[in-house]
């Protein structure tokens, strides 16, 4: 057999081995973490296939796919009867999410989890994603800051500070203490302090009272 003929036989054999394909999720079973897929472009529907997870040990991460989501289907050991959904791909309709904290998509070395981005189209005839959910939660980790939030609530954790903002009320915890601005502090319990409690004008520990217009001021508080 000539070299050309040998190469032809090899190429023919390789072409008969099932290859990875792309498809759209057509059904989802969150309990078994499996889905059915419409293989593109002929839209042949598979049976129930396992959907690969990021972690399945003591640490477990579950993010079931959404109907209409574009995925890759890989034949296990080249066997077309045993397929696995190995991952998802962004496309021209379902793109990478934009972080509410930075106004940008996640950059190399970052991770962004954004919910409520809008459901993918349910079939190939619809070319518009669903409406995004206003105020949906997000979590964005960068090399310097961990951002999180939902609607009017936002927060950040960085080396040296923890900040949470709800509307105009801001709470900042740092090595210098806890600061709250833009809101009122209320409690149904006791307030216990080892040091002083001060307002903008008076000290609870060292304030004095006048004794009428003709008398001297009192001493500081006792007990």
TrEMBL record:
UniProt cross-references to InterPro entries, sorted A to Z: Gp5/Vgr_OB, Vgr_OB-fold_dom_sf
Residue ranges of every copy of the Gp5/Type VI secretion system Vgr protein OB-fold domain listed in the record: 22-90
Pfam family, one: Phage_base_V
Region named Disordered: 197-223
Name of protein: Phage-related baseplate assembly protein
Species per Swiss-Prot/TrEMBL record: Gluconobacter oxydans (strain 621H) (Gluconobacter suboxydans)
Lineage of producing organism: Bacteria, Pseudomonadati, Pseudomonadota, Alphaproteobacteria, Acetobacterales
